[in-house]
Amino acid sequence: MTLLAIETSCDETGVAVVRNGHVLANLVSSQTSLHAEYGGVVPELATREHLRNLPVLIQAALCEAGTDPPAIEALAATQGPGLPNALMVGLKAAQGIACALRRPFLGIHHHEAHLYSAWVKGDPPHADFPAIQPHVALIVSGGHTLLIHVPEGLRHRVLGSTLDDAAGECFDKTAKLLGLPYPGGPVMDQLAAEGNPAAFPFPRPLLNDAAYDFSFSGLKTSVRYFLRDHPGLADDPQALRDLCASVQAAIVEVLLAKTTRAARDLGVRLVTASGGVTCNRALRRDLASACARDGLDLRLAPTAFCTDNAAMVGLLAEWKLASGVPPDDPDGDVRPAWSLESMPARGG
Question: How many domains are there within the chain?
């Protein structure tokens, strides 16, 4: 099967071509510099850029994959969750192409695509879906932090989610408090590498709570009050590095503790992690150490597939169609608030 996939859930325009579990092309046009001056994503600008970039990326992806529209056998696009108008651009483009070519179409849940991106490996990249075994999956991004039990491929159960600010959101909002440029998460990661993670004792929200849910708004508020009570501290270069390292340590400790405890409680021997925040070096390093300490295996999504991309959408869609999941209504609408918990477990 040769499948064309589109991802436009937020501010990355992505187009990919996959065939039989292999990624033939995976192009992403980032809008980071466009939104940087506003300190966050502006939905109207994101939609405009998707409209401008998508036709160019589709043509370029087909060219890179060495194929043309008649050879495309199926279409897929992110259907939700995400920014409504941004989702609309990619979804309707994929549905329109599917209708014109008379090909099946599948709408993909953005978080589910992230979930299975941990099973992408190799160069050139390909999906290792046959190797899937029972595991606990951590999905951590700018807007969502989820802990999921996956008893087998294409079946999952949400164990916990964010009650307020997600981990990535906490990184970005804290960075803004510190006067760092947008997006703040990667900047904090860089500064934290030369900081002392034990310099400032910030709280670890819900660390010892029996549930698997996450909450990071209290940590952000704690940083705000700390800066209020220590004016000018962030102007000192080393203190700024220590602040970044201390906040990062608090976030990472909570993510690690919840994830490894879930694996132990469920008796599974494998943990996976994916999503944009999984690019964070401390998270990757400390999660590897924690899993090794507890005798757990670990699969991390490749950094190129942690941030939003269409390859993860296409690989999941191809796998689903091959597993007998029926195509979706080609006239289906976007689902901006689509909860992963509401999805039926579908397997072949």
Answer: 2
